[in-house]
């Protein structure tokens, strides 16, 4: 006689399987963190194979038939809580998506990615896109096939987007980027007519140790919990989480550029606060994970730009900063500092762009990816297309491939559909921040006095604690009362930069 | 028709399975290293479960029937190289030993260890052995059962010893420790009649950063490869290896005690040189692993004591050390420094003991473990037995349990049979060093001039490169021409301490 298992028992089985997978994936994250921070050079090769082994194990565990059976059985149970049901539904969706990939395809993609990455490194060394192009072409071909495997109703790009931002599609992005073009270009043109604020003082000598201490202080003031995290140094700043009680950030310090460390601390701090705010009791389950890349980026950008590049933020912190770097900053008034850290100027490199021109960098990549996916663009023409776009939208002439089409690592990794989430992050950030200011009385007064508790609490209650329970669209609508709309970012930009560049006083 | 696989193909299958297991185990080591160096406090709980999951996975992979079948099949093949045959034979031995443990026993041991460890922590807090005793009794019971599971012909302790030191047994250790007693006690009695050298200057203020730099310099001079390793700080110094290209050491720094950092650097450096010298091409296989704990310890102690506490070592380094810590050491002659770092004085704590009295600490533990295992001693009497032994052998009165029977973590971990390997390490070290000096012309001249290349090369060629190919006994006989004999350590001790304490001049 077979006794039917209770839903509670079945759910417990499911939780155990998922947490086991999470343990393996989080172990990979520890190895990855170590790789970027402390790994001795000669250890790289063996570390690579250790990561591959863990990845294979995690993949096998997640592709296990018995997990699928369990998920389908649980999907029929009606006596689960809403969160439990959501976990099961999302896990089943992930499971079935994962099972769609034929093993041969996974292997082909893995070796193509490896080859593309090394070709990209080589192409950068030789400053020659032609070295990378054939492997990029192969990658595009594979991504087209991946879109077919995953399935889509509209544009093939939708299938890839969905990997990073559930529910986003080409239709939504076309609308957003049309708004970007129509409304930001005129603003940039106005700004271009104004004098460029002085920012030379940001490039004076800022000793490493003092920068480091200042950055830690900022993180602490934001509410980042050093009991459940730490900061280290790496070549490229990043945030990684092994569980909500161990969320780590890294930064880099350039003694000739105060901004490098400052913005990475605040940006990664924003990502980390999100991860520290995810519900620990949902460890390993969808509701314990971030909603999407766009929402993740909204948290980092809200802190970096809406808070960290605001006048009220520096009203509180600037005196301290001046005290630390007296010879560099004592003669620089707050207003000049504020203008310098918000300089808007078209440039070549996405990661160095200001918060307005940044979105043209993303738009260019979005248009290119879309075109490659639907076949209207070819990789062999990519250098020319890239350079033309930069001339058209940013009025800059790309001098070489290194500062042009070879600047990002993403395509060599096979990450197509990732770039748009950066812009979505900024736009979500503006809309969320706007809502927070409306809903929380005295929020900006608190920020002006260096108190971020109320803001963090609002983010915890409205965003962090839900994990993946809502999609980014749903979450946005629930919290702000409307779908994502570019108008909030535009209003923010017009107000802020109108003030900085005195645009209404001409 | 089934085509029989070639031995080369079968061996390749075996290598892949073993390397996969090694990858998981080494990932655990990375997580363990992180736990002791950089883990934020709140991350400990999740880290614990991540380690348990990886441990379970590694165990399952190693217990897999298909691996057993493969090993047995390979065991019948005669067309394998000597190293391949040895790998297969040792893996099969490990595999069968691993399969002997019933799952219920493993679970019981795991929960008993956990309980014992926490009771030990609590007992130390309360400075009361009685808190730990019942859990230790349970542990002893389990270790007796483990000895039965593993099987033995002589003393049940042999089965446990064999886990750490293949081929060692009670008969061998009884002989060794009888020699220790008979010949070291008289030496200690002679030393006790002499004046105690001054060592107060070692407890002056030694700033952290300068100690750190000095330690790194010593490691570099020993030949430790920082391209394939690194040093960090942890509460208890240790060496860990993720593969021969990534072998890490840790140290601790006490600003009031120069010795703490110095000896941990050299000791762990010796362990690390062994791991860096293991054959990388045997990754994951027995011949890529250390021969035994005793041989491992022989490497650390050879560097720490035979080299690092020698007069010729400091003839080279002392000037530099004086230069760094001028106000502390400039007025201290080399001879006084040399005497101070070789002070012999009975004491309460094993880890702080000098290189002579140390072996009585080990002998006491050995006698106790043996008695517990064969039932001639009971845990309830352990405090009294311990204190009596310390009075008898070391003439020290144990003031409390913290400085007595509760000082070591080993029993709470279930590590019975581990302690003797510390002494074996010292005795192997003396015998090996003796042989090296005989075989390599000018070895001590090289050491006196700060050149350790020749010594390291000799260790690489005679010890490191063999991995587990030979047991410690076999290796010792092969390299030194005879079995392990205490006489080499005794000759070393008599010569060194006879000089320091001017024993022949009375």
From TrEMBL, chains A, B:
<keyword id="KW-0862">Zinc</keyword>
<keyword id="KW-0482">Metalloprotease</keyword>
<dbReference type="Pfam" id="PF02074">
    <property type="entry name" value="Peptidase_M32"/>
</dbReference>
<dbReference type="GO" id="GO:0004181">
    <property type="term" value="F:metallocarboxypeptidase activity"/>
</dbReference>
<keyword id="KW-0645">Protease</keyword>
<protein>
    <recommendedName>
        <fullName>Metal-dependent carboxypeptidase</fullName>
        <ecNumber>3.4.17.19</ecNumber>
    </recommendedName>
</protein>
<feature type="binding site">
    <location>
        <position position="271"/>
    </location>
    <ligand>
        <name>Zn(2+)</name>
    </ligand>
</feature>
<keyword id="KW-0479">Metal-binding</keyword>
<comment type="similarity">
    <text>Belongs to the peptidase M32 family.</text>
</comment>
<feature type="binding site">
    <location>
        <position position="267"/>
    </location>
    <ligand>
        <name>Zn(2+)</name>
    </ligand>
</feature>
<keyword id="KW-0378">Hydrolase</keyword>
<comment type="function">
    <text>Broad specificity carboxypetidase that releases amino acids sequentially from the C-terminus, including neutral, aromatic, polar and basic residues.</text>
</comment>
<dbReference type="InterPro" id="IPR001333">
    <property type="entry name" value="Peptidase_M32_Taq"/>
</dbReference>
<feature type="binding site">
    <location>
        <position position="297"/>
    </location>
    <ligand>
        <name>Zn(2+)</name>
    </ligand>
</feature>
<dbReference type="GO" id="GO:0046872">
    <property type="term" value="F:metal ion binding"/>
</dbReference>
<dbReference type="GO" id="GO:0006508">
    <property type="term" value="P:proteolysis"/>
</dbReference>
<keyword id="KW-0121">Carboxypeptidase</keyword>
<feature type="active site" description="Proton donor/acceptor">
    <location>
        <position position="268"/>
    </location>
</feature>
């Amino acid at each position: 006689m077979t006794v039917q298992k209770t839903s509670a028992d079945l759910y417990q089985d499911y939780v155990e399987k998922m947490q086991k997978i999470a343990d393996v994936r989080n172990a990979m994250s520890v190895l990855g963190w170590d790789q970027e921070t402390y790994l001795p050079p000669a250890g790289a090769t063996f570390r690579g194979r250790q990561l591959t082994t863990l990845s294979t194990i995690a993949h096998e565990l997640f592709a296990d038939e018995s997990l699928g059976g369990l998920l389908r059985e649980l999907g029929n149970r009606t006596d689960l809580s809403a969160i439990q049901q959501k976990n099961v539904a999302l896990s089943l969706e992930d499971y079935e998506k994962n099972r769609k990939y034929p093993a041969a395809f996974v292997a082909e993609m893995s070796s193509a990615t490896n080859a593309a990455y090394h070709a990209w490194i080589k192409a950068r060394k030789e400053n020659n896109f032609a070295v990378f192009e054939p492997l990029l072409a192969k990658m595009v071909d594979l991504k087209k096939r991946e879109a077919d495997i995953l399935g889509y109703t509209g544009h093939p790009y939708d299938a890839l987007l969905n990997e990073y931002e559930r529910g986003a599609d080409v239709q939504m992005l076309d609308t957003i980027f049309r708004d970007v073009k129509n409304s930001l270009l005129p603003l940039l043109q106005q700004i271009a007519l104004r004098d460029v604020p002085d920012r030379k003082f940001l490039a004076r000598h800022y000793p490493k140790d003092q920068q480091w201490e200042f950055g830690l202080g900022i993180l602490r003031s934001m509410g980042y919990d050093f009991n459940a995290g730490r900061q280290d140094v790496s070549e490229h700043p990043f945030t990684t989480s092994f569980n909500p009680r161990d969320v780590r950030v890294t930064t880099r310090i350039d003694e000739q550029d105060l901004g490098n460390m400052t913005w990475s601390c605040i940006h990664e701090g924003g990502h980390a606060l999100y991860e520290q705010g995810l519900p620990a009791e949902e460890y390993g389950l969808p509701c314990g994970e971030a909603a999407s890349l766009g929402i993740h980026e909204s948290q980092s950008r809200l802190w970096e730009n809406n808070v960290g590049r605001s006048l009220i933020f520096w009203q509180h912190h600037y005196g301290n900063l001046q005290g630390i770097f007296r010879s560099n900053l004592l003669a620089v008034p707050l207003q000049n500092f504020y203008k310098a850290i918000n300089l808007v100027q078209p440039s070549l490199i996405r990661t160095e762009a200001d918060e307005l021109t940044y979105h043209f960098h993303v738009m260019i990549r979005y248009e290119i990816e879309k075109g490659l996916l639907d076949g209207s663009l070819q990789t062999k023409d990519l250098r020319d297309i890239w350079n033309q776009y930069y001339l058209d939208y940013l009025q800059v002439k790309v001098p070489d491939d290194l500062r042009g089409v070879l600047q990002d690592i993403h395509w060599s990794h096979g990450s197509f559909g990732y770039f748009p989430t950066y812009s979505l992050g900024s736009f979500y950030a503006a809309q969320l921040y706007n809502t927070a200011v409306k809903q929380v009385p005295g929020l900006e007064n608190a920020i002006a006095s260096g108190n971020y508790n109320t803001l963090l609490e609002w983010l915890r209650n409205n965003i962090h604690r839900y994990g993946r329970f809502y999609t980014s669209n749903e979450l946005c609508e629930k919290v702000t009362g409307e779908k994502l709309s570019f108008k909030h970012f535009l209003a923010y930009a017009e107000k802020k930069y109108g003030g900085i560049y005195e645009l209404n006083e001409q």
